[in-house]
Amino acid sequence: LELGINFDHIWQKTLTVLHPLKVADGSIMNETDLAGPMVFCLAFGATLLLAGKIQFGYVYGISAIGCLGMFCLLNLMSMTGVSFGCVASVLGYCLLPMILLSSFAVIFSLQGMVGIILTAGIIGWCSFSASKIFISALAMEGQQLLVAYPCALLYGVFALISIF
Amino acid sequence: MPASKRRIPVSQPGMADPHQLFDDTSSAQSRGYGAQRAPGGLGYPAPSASPQAAFLADPVSNMAMAYGSSLAAQGKELVDKNIDRFIPVTKLKYYFAVDTMYVGKKLGLLFFPYLHQDWEVQYQQDTPVAPRFDINAPDLYIPAMAFITYVLVAGLALGTQDRFSPDLLGLQASSALAWLTLEVLAILLSLYLVTVNTDLTTLDLVAFLGYKYVGMIGGVLMGLLFGKIGYYLVLGWCCVSIFVFMIRTLRLKILAEAAAEGVPVRGARNQLRMYLTMAVAAAQPLLMYWLTFHLVR
Which family does this protein fall into (chain A) (predicted)? Predict the structure, then answer.
């Protein structure tokens, strides 16, 4: 039964996120699929539940507002436009390192110095890969840090939810 | 009529929509929704046990799917056409045509405007040059990011004082937005009353008023790290810098040509304009203090 889920593409995109220093191929975002991001969001919520934080509503709300904000910003900043599905898909894929952080938070508390450094590193990793994919897919030059900053804000809010 | 509707979903995946770089496979999802919603709407008695293949082969459900997806496409076109009426998208795009170098230099200018000599915006055949190419041009990226960062930092500050709850974030955001709107309206009103002919558009004004959030963020962060002393030091520095920045920038926009070149021109009109510029510039530090002092204890 063809559900329209292409496992090979999902795996490719996941690998792109996991290797932040490798240059991304601009054509991988040609089909927006929300299956992978859905899985990652649910996994993130599950790890939050394990840590005892029942704040699902805030996660949904923040991700919706964040996606909308990124969508508006990218449409205004790039020459070509971008569809909402594409933005949601990329942001969802780059949530993968955040899942690592929240599963870490289940066992150890993140409020010490080590926790802060780890959190900062993970946020940097997420935003860097997200901005890398956006830049290569939308052919924006000289704007990677500018795209990475709002992504870092969004993932920072997720990290705040994981910590507090 | 049904034939033309049926052609739409077939050509959609292959056709390059000028607004999109990607083939949006979400249309496949809307096609699926159309198939599920429309039969119910048409009163088609679809038993839940009927197999998928027979369902799709039925011409009525085919037409229903086509109708559903064409509705989605029409809705999208409608939004695209009308959004330009409410939000001037191309004008907004001008303010976001920035790159990293510009943002870096502009931030430096906001904290240290004392050495910069030439504040004139360069023009290119009657239209101002994009912010990418001219550091004096106003942009909306920095104010927008600064605003959002300010709301988050305020939430963080309240969190460290154990006064945090996520609804407080919303409260902070709406109150800061309300103050900004009030400021913009007040200045527009005074500009109208003074009957000044400037090329200071509303978006320009929003951009200039948004720059103070950068200083506010700096102050609050220093306050979080180093307590009240750090807060007052950094806030004081940022207040003076923003004051100088605003005076030098607004002078070129509000005052008449002659006065902008430093020649003091007599006449009540120009004096009024000078007072207006000073008032706007002086309001910035006041608001900066007002909006942040309750965050640093």
Answer: Belongs to the YIP1 family.
Is residue A84 in a domain? yes
Chain B residue at shortest CA distance from A82: B20
Question: Closest approach of chain A CAs to the CA of B9, in angstroms?
Answer: 17
Cα separation values, B10 from B16, B22, B52, B61, Å: 13, 16, 20, 16
Q: Is residue A121 part of a domain?
A: yes
Residue-level pLDDT, tens digit, chain B, 297 residues: 444 444 444 444 444 444 555 555 554 444 444 444 444 444 444 444 455 555 556 778 888 888 877 887 787 777 766 666 667 777 788 888 888 888 999 998 888 888 888 887 777 777 777 878 888 888 889 999 999 999 888 877 877 776 556 677 777 788 888 888 888 888 888 878 777 667 677 888 888 888 989 989 989 888 888 888 888 999 999 999 999 998 888 887 776 555 555 555 566 677 777 888 888 888 888 888 888 888 877
H/E segment holding residue B127 = strand B127-128
Our count of domains for chain A comes to 1
Is residue A9 in some structural domain?
no
Which positions 74-133 of A are in contact with B (Cβ < 8 Å)?
A: 76-77, 80-83, 85-86
Q: Which candidate, B260, B263, B256, B215, places its Cα nearest to that of B238?
A: B215
| Shortest alpha-carbon distance between residue B196 and chain A (Å) | 31
Inter-chain residue contact B21 with A142, CB threshold 8 Å? no
Instruction: Give the integer Cα–Cα distance in Å for A137 and A26.
Output: 4
